[in-house]
Each structure stands twice: as C-alpha cells, then as structure tokens.
Amino acid sequence: MGIFNTENLEIFSLALFFISFFGIITSKNMIKSIIFVMLIQTAVIMFWLKLGREDTATPIPPIIYDPALLDYMERIADPLPQALTLTAIIIGFSVVAVIITMFNALYRLHGTADWKKLEEVEGD
Amino acid sequence: MGIENIWQLIGNIIIGFGVFCMIFGAVSLFVLKDFYPRILVASKIDTVGLLSFVIGFAFRHGLSFFTGKLFIILIIMLVLNPFVAHILARSAYRSGHELAAEAEEGEKS
Amino acid sequence: MTQGLLVLWIVSSLAIVFETRTYRLIIYFSIFSLITSVAYFLLGSPDVAMAEAAIAAFASIFFIICIEKYYSRKENVEKDSAKGESLARKAVKAVPALVLCVGLFFLVIYFIPGIEPSHYLKHLYLQRFMTDVGGENAVTAIYLGYRVYDTLFEALILVIAVVAVTHMSYSEKTQVADGSHSEIETSRVAALSLRIICPIIVAFGAYLIINGHISAGGGFQGGLALATFFICRYMVYDIYDISVKNVLQWEEFIFAIIIVVTAIAVFLGAATYMPAAIVPIYQSVYLIIMNLLIGLKVACAFFVLFYRYITIERE
C-alpha cells in the first residue's frame, strides 16, 4: 500500500526523529522539550529494531523453546538490538527523571517554564 | 448446524452487543458537554463494552487455557474500570468542578 | 493494520508538536507510547514492548506529579508564549527550523539505501546461546551473558540517576516528615479495589522475573511491575512511612551483590570448574538469580523516584 508499509519503517522512524528535532528546537515550553527528548529516543530505537530484520514478513520473537525453530533463521527477530534497547530504554528514562528534577529546581528558582522568559530573567 | 456453530453464534451476538455499546458511548462522549455525564459514559464503554468483548471471545473459543487467561483479564477489568471512574469523579468533585447548569444558576443567584 | 498504526504514530507525534495545553501533551504522549509498544510487538520484540509500556506509564505519572506540584495548573503554554504575536508571525518564525529539519530528512533518506546490515552476530548468538548461557530467551541470554558489562553499567547509571534526583530535590523547608499523612483522606472504594489488585500485580511481577529466562520478560519489566505495587500501597494507606534513605541503601547493596555475582559467574568463569552434568542447572540458577537481583534493584530505584517526587510539598 504505497509508502505506508512496514518496509518503510526506516523512513517513518526518521520522520519521527526529525519531527521531534523540530519540536525540540522550536518549542517554548520546557515540559514539551522533555517529552520530545523521550520521542527522539523512541525514533532511534525503532530505527535500530527495523535495521535488524532479514525477512520482510512479521518476525518471530527470539524465544527458542524448540531447536527446530532455528531452521527458520531468516524469520527470527534479531535479539542483539533488543537486548541493547532494553538497557537503552531504562537509561533514557533515568536521564529524563534527572531532567525533570532539574526542571523543578529551575522552576522554583525563576518561576517560569518558558525558554524565552528564562533568558530575560537571567539577563537582568 | 452443529453445537460449535451455536456457541460461535452466541459469541458473535455478545460481541455485537459490545460493539453497539462502544459506538453509542463514543458518540455520546461527543454529544454530552459536561464532565460527570462523560465519566459515566466512559466507564460504561470500558466496563460493559470490554466485558462483553471478553465474554464473547470466551464463548467463541470454547473452554481451554486461553479462556482462563481471558477470565483473569475480566476480573481485573471488573475491579479496575469502576475504580478509575470513581477516582476521576471523586477528584473532580473534591477540586470543585461543577456541572455547567448548576454553575449558571450559581451566577444568577 | 500495521499501516494504520504507522500513520497514527506520526499523527500523534504531530499532535504533540501542535498542542499547547500541558495536560493534553501528557495524554498524547501516552497514546504515542501505546502505539509504539504495539509496533515493537509487531516487530518481534515482546521484551522491549513490555519495557516501553511500563516506562511510558511511569513517565506520564512523573510528568503529572511534576505539573501538579511545581508548575501551576493555570499557567499554560499559551499564557507563557507572547500573546501579541499573530499566528502568521509565529509561522514565519518557525520556517528556518522547518527548512533545516526537512532538508536533513531528505538528505538522510537519500543516503539510506546504501546501508546493508550484517546478520553475522545474530546467527552466531542464536545458534550458540543455549549452550553458552542457557535459558530459552535469547534476549535474556545476551544481556546477562554475552553483554553483561552493558547491564552492569546500566545498573550503575540507574543508581547514579536516583542519587542525583534524591540530592538535587532535597530541601529542608519542603521535606515531609516520616509517618505523616497527606491532608486528603483516601477513598474507601479505591483502597478496597487496590487491595484486590495488589496481589495480582505482585504475582505478575514475580512471574515475569522468575520466568524471564524461558519466556518474554525479565528483570527490568518485572521490577517495574513490582514498583507499581509500592505506588498502590501509597494510594491505599496514604502515609509517608518508608524512609527513602533506607531504600536507597538497599538499592546500593543489591547493586554490590550484582557485581559480586557477575564477577564469580562470568569473569572467573565458574562453569568451567564444574562437571558437565550440572552446568545446565547452574546456568538457569544463575539467570534466575541475576533477573531477581536486577528486578529488585529496578523496583527499589523506581520506588525511590516516585516517593521523591510525591513527598515534596508545594511551597
């Protein structure tokens, strides 16, 4: 069905990456920027998972309860990006938690959540 | 028409009832303007719609391990959905949210 | 179905770009994460899907607490932004960023077809993990066996992040004393429902952790489920009676145990000193113990994060 295909998931994740990039550099609110930091991480993870696919059909999860499954090696999903993204998701979230705390401290100090207003406040 | 087909028919009828409930709930979410009626409708979508879906799937599938899993989901949803609606309505009431009609009367008096 | 999902994916991310009200941002973010989780599942990675769903739930909770406690409700993005500006001026201001992003997008698209990923490591791992590490789940075998350094440093980063959050948000003035209740009385219906649900949550978390090496799941996902139990406990009793410091010390202690277990099992290679008959049993015991430790550590970390955010009162 045209470009709306799982084959083009790379293009979709790249589009999401640049949408989030656009959001980060244009958003005025800090909470919005923090949310886009999480979105950009999702885009990278999706790109990575897609890159590990050999076959175009829906992949089998890499849980080999029966050694006979190894005959369909092409159809099994790549376990290496999955194991790495598991840790990447947790690390990304802990980074976001630290960012939220920094936002809270900043808001308590200056009383604003706007990037532009923050520059004015700090300029004085 | 064997006995399996009758079970399938019953399951389809129950799923159809769930779809009916969900469609009417989704329409009335847009028709109703106040917060409390919306909560009522949303909890009805969650509870009645989803429960009839699950029961319909159980009828279609017959008695097996899969049906047991479905019934665990059913019990969890039966507890959680009214709880969510209750928490939403309660916190709205506690933070002073009023119905639109009552708010108008309050302004007049 | 997948096509529709992908379109919804992009639409929800665009909705976040154009939304200006803060609470709706969080709701759109939840929708986006749900779609992402389903897409991960369709890509054949149930472990990542579970982790994404749980993390998204925690992230929305933290964002909402943050908005409730610090960032006042009436102060929206609309109020923050300059009101005098017309829509056209705003659009003109966004043009350079738009040109930059679209240009970079097409530049990358132009070079993408040249990438040919190699599947050498995939075949190697999938053929050998059952004898090298044990278990049936290749993902668990990789993050506890072949790439255990990654997991160690991930655990270290989680400890550092939790310590940073605890110390950065500390202030004497706003600290809530141990054992105090909040002024809102808890709803009895909520307490009753959560008491029914809590055992199911704990059983689910324990199942994910203990069965992590033979089915989808593992330490991270089970730990997140266990952390949810503590949140339910806070909602039922509404009392700040668990000391954050103690839990933090427990977390560091569990991290030390993880390092010791890894050192004995992987770096010293305990399996080489054993008779070949008991190696499979030893391998599954090692996987279960590591999953259990990681699960407890993640549960402690997320519990500390949640309590840290919830116990700081508004000034």
What would you say this structure looks like, in words?
The complex is a heterotrimer of chains A (124), B (109) and C (315). Chain A has 124 residues and is mainly alpha-helical. Helix content of chain A is 65%, strand content 0%. Chain A has a single domain, classed as Orthogonal Bundle (Helix Hairpins), CATH 1.10.287. Chain B has 109 residues and is mostly helical. Helix content of chain B is 87%, strand content 0%. The radius of gyration of chain B is 19 Å and the shape is elongated. The mean pLDDT of chain B is 83. Chain C folds into 2 domains: 117 residues, no CATH class; 193 residues, no CATH class. In chain C, α1 runs antiparallel to α2, α7 crosses α8 and α11 runs antiparallel to α12. In chain C, 35% of the residues are buried. The interface between A and C is large, with 82 and 95 residues.
Name some characteristics of this structure.
heterotrimer, A: 124 residues, mainly alpha, Helix Hairpins, 4 helices, C: 315 residues, 12 helices, 74% helix
Task: Provide a brief overview of the structure.
The complex is a heterotrimer of chains A (124), B (109) and C (315). Chain A is mostly helical and 124 residues long.
